[in-house]
Amino acid sequence: MKKPHKNTIVLFGCAVLIGLMLGIVSQAEPLYRIFCGATGFGGTTQNASVAPTRTKDRAITVIFDSNVDPALPWDFRPLKRHITVKLGEEATALYRAHNRSHQTITGTAVHNVQPDKAGLYFNKTQCFCFIKQTLNPGQSKDMLVKFFIDPALASDKNEDDVTQLTLSYTFYLAKTGPKAHNTTE
Questions:
Q1: What's the pTM?
Q2: For 70, what's the count of Cα atoms within 13 Å in the CB-facing half-sphere?
Q3: Residue 110: which of 64, 172, 161, 48 has the closest Cα?
Q4: What is the 3-state secondary structure (H, E, C) of the chain?
């Protein structure tokens, strides 16, 4: 009589373990985003409501990079290739997007900072990447990003070699919103 009871316990234990594993897997993406946001892992930048009131004398050159997924018929480029900013100083960069198609299209931008370790100190106060962008046929639009590099970078000995960083954006066709005409329809 004890053997069926042991089998029931083992079966129940396996079911609980499988349920836990499925729960963790289903939350992997949000957990990964939280982890990256908190640590700057993978060049994930930070968001801030305001820039610091004090700056440091140390300057960093920020290089601007732009990419477009081939599925999105847009041109996208920074208006300036680079700027030099002091730590804590709020700076503004402009990118220009142009819809080459004859359709209204919505795109979404993802970003990162290189070197990865600098992502923890790169803060955006305003960015076109916070919302999806819709462009009408042939429309061009200048898109703004305001940012600062946290003055705490100066105190991090692991960051002493960082004299420049690259802010990179890639635009993709948005999953919702106006899209390009599907030629298979």
A1: 0.70
A2: 0
A3: 172
A4: CHHHHHHHHHHHHHHHHHHHHHHHHHCHHHHHHHHHHHHCHHHCCEECCCCCCCCCCCEEEEEEEEEECCCCCEEEEECCCEEEEECCCCEEEEEEEEECCCCCEEEEEEEEEECHHHHHHEEEEEEHHHCCEEECCCCEEEEEEEEEECHHHHHCHHHCCCCEEEEEEEEEECCCCCCCCCCCC
The first and second tokens of residue 59, run together, are 């300057």
Residues 6+ apart with CB under 8 A from 149: 60, 62, 85, 87, 88, 89, 118, 121, 122, 123, 165
| Of 34-38, 77-81, 129-133, 181-185, the least confident | 181-185
| Residue pLDDT, tens place only, 127-181 | 998 899 999 999 999 999 999 999 988 888 888 889 999 999 999 999 876 664 4
The correct answer on CATH 1.25.40.10 for the domain covering 42-173 is no
**pLDDT tens-place string over residues 16-31:** 887 777 666 665 555 4
Q: Where are the domains of the chain?
A: 2-33, 42-173
Q: What is the CA radius of gyration of the chain?
A: 23
Find out whether 91 and 115 touch, Cβ atoms under 8 Å. Answer: no
- Cα(41)–Cα(97) distance, rounded to whole angstroms? 28
